[in-house]
Amino acid sequence: MILTSTVLFFIAVSLILYIIVPGSLKRYVLLAASLVYILMEGGMSALVAVLCMSVFTYIAGMLTVFEKSRGGSGSVSAAIGISALILTLFGWKYLPWGTSVVTGSAPEWMSRLVPPIGLSFYTFQAISYLADIKSGKIKKSAGAGIFFLYMTWFPKWMSGPIEREQSFESAVISAGKASVFDSDRFVRAISYIIWGMFMKLVIADRIAVAADAAFEQPEAFGSIPLIIASLLYTMQIYCDFAGYTDMMLGVSLLFGVEITQNFTTPYLTQSITMFWRSWHISLSSFFRDYLYIPLGGNRKGRFRKGLNTVIVFLLCGIWHGAGFTFIIWGLLHGIYNVFNDLIRNTKAKFLQKGVPGTIVTFCMVSFAWIFFRASSLGNAGLYIKNMLMPAGMSLFEGFKSEEGLILGMAGMEWLIGCGSMLLLIVMDAVSAAKKTTVPELVSSFKSEAGRGALLLVVALAILIFGRYGAGEEIRSFVYSQF
Hints:
By secondary structure, this protein is mainly α. It has helices at 5-20, 26-69, 75-103, 108-111, 119-135, 144-152, 154-157, 165-177, 183-216, 223-254, 272-276, 281-292, 302-320, 324-342, 354-373, 377-388, 411-433, 438-443, 448-465.
């Protein structure tokens, strides 16, 4: 969701309606707004897809509750429901790719199987709902209204966070009882929205130009520009996805609904394990609770723990996309985590602590992102080859064009990008030291003047330096494709 004038108008109208209706009807305003937004942004196909999955999951949930009420475990109904959800996700996202790998090409009708926006995210929500009913975490079926809102709530529909039904229902109930004129909540919401827009429009979309240039033609560049581009992509995907999440947290907060925090300064963590506790937190916790622990977690010895870890990250890679590049990306993170566990009590444990740990973790993550960003396995291999051993070219080959552009960006663009990233690093470092996030840090300033001044400066930076407007294509969010 880019906060365009149309979207801002939609949010304003929805918020006004939410404020004026009685408390008992507020959740239905949220549901109606969500359905309208999905139709507006994703089209009828996206709306039909999420509604069909919601109806199926709700019925499967009721059958699981009924089975348990008759003395059963609920396993049959839950297993059928979860299996159907997994097959739907797999078929829609991976059947064309898998067929083309096996047979050489996929039928034309398969190539038209374009997954609806948000499919991966709300499918995982549906799976968690059925699994929690089966395990007893949810004692009875949710009300239809609250469940359909859980599946469709528009700030998280496109790219998460992946919510749990119990916590989301509590958040909606609390929102309905809270004062609609809560100044502290409004300040938090604005802080999240402004910081998220800064990360997306000023940083991510700007440095993406240089990253795209290198990944599209890695054969044209020497080691130095390719290393720089890989580091820039590392920052781009963080600013893009965390920026999206912050904006959605802020929009949801405007309505009083607290959703899951998905990022807590991940690039300042000191080990790969800590990185995954700070990056895409809702996805990490989903795999931990519904895959890693059921596989045995760390309860069956070191070998099984390592195997379970690799399986989890392999499936994490597959979840992100159909292609060998995502499989390699997932396996790399699985190996990273196993290695991290092996050296924990050895002399090499200094690689997991302090500044060395942060640098090593950042470099490992940055290297893995090459596979995530590459268009194919061959593209990734060529990128890494030229980055490490450029044949017949200088280290700086392609760094500067005849027009004076550096990796496709003018000098002023580099100045703005580097200055913005420096501000981001400083704010993240302060937030990490205080064990919070930048928006929460800003909204908690005791000085209202200081807080207002900082938000005003950042807002002006967005207006002046943001990548949008006439002649500028607004980039979609990276994670909207997953």
